[in-house]
Amino acid sequence: MLTAPALTLLFLVIVICLGAAFVWMFWEIEQRTSKPHRMPKPYRKSGHVG
């Protein structure tokens, strides 16, 4: 069984990790939505990628 200070530290670590994950997620979403989406160039019929 963990003591109260150990449980408090564990709780703080979990909250900090979840907060960092949410910040990272929103950062990635914001980066993807801010860039203009470019369609890839179509391949030529000869099979040569230009």
- N-to-C series of helices and strands: H
Gap between N and C termini: 65 Å
Helical region count? 1
> How much is the average pLDDT?
85
Q: Which stretches of 5+ consecutive residues score pLDDT under 50?
A: none
* Largest sheet descriptor: none
Overall SS class? mainly alpha
Number of strands: 0
Shape: rod-shaped
Report helical residue fraction: 55-70%
- Spatial extent as radius of gyration: 23 Å
Please explain how this structure is put together.
The protein has 50 residues and is mainly α. 62% of the residues lie in helices and 0% in strands. It contains one helix and no strands. It is rod-shaped and about 70 Å long.
Protein traits:
50 residues; mainly alpha; 0% strand; rod-shaped
Topology (elements, then pairings):
Layout: H1 4-34
